[in-house]
Amino acid sequence: MDIKKLSLIALVAASVITNLVLFMGKGSAASKAQAEVKKAREDAAYVRSQTNDIILNNNLLWSIIDSTWKSPDKSRAAIKRLADSQRVPRCNGKACAGNEEEARLRTNIVSNAQERNITVGWGSSGKTSMKYSFKVVYDNRDRFATIDVSDLLGQGISASEAETETEEEGEEE
Prior knowledge:
alpha+beta; four-stranded antiparallel β-sheet; two-stranded antiparallel sheet; rod-shaped
């Protein structure tokens, strides 16, 4: 009987240990699942806030484009004044209230023999670079020529890339 009792005790002990391991493992799996869900929610909230920033801030740029197009004064100085008077509504996923420097629109004026323009935008990684912008282009006599919105439309490519694409299209035909 000692062997049967010993076997029964060993069987009960093994069963208890197995159940403990299973329940501890389930607790670990539950906490891992909760951590994954929390991370997924945080990631989704971040994407949602960034998307909201882009929509609202780009709406401001489109409003400035509309005002510029309708204005009789399309000079670089007038556009610079208009841009300086505006503030983007969203900064890094929240309202820009109290963050005057970050809320400012960025401007970059180019005036040389090759090109004359003013670029207005927001979302910089540096002092003058912009993630989202439009460009008002002037001819060689500083007269208004056009407004380039390709960056806002997601079509911003450099001139060398455009030439390469044109050459490749010609080879395919």
